Fold this protein.
Amino acid sequence: MGLFDRAKNAFAGMDPQSMAAQAQAAQQLAAQQLAQAGYSDGALPTAAEGAGLRERMQADHDVLNAYGQELNRVIAVGMPATGIITGAVDTGERTAGNAWYLIDIEVTIPGGAPYTVAKREMVAAQFIGNYAIGSAHGVAVDPADPQNIALTS
């Protein structure tokens, strides 16, 4: 039995209304995901909007990739320290639906005096509770720039 025969048999006996309902549910889920990521108003994009949407998604991908690479670099070379969050403000910026915050962190390197860093950090909505004022975190401090840190916990 060939591929097309198996595909034909997979759909044999399926009610066309059931298939249409499944397709509509899939489209609604896709529209919901695009809206949550900030790419649409909840409607599926038209073919004409597709190129612009792809460009926005690629730009967000590039931002996320560069952000992740920098965090990984700082974590790899950084000196371990502790940080206490003393302030957090939503900047209003979004990348792929995630908010950017300006977070004030009091950083203490072992044996050193505490100092304050203002860090721009992307935080998904479900994790914002982890960044409460007064919460303590592990931090990696870039040895070339003590103002450049990465939260490690």
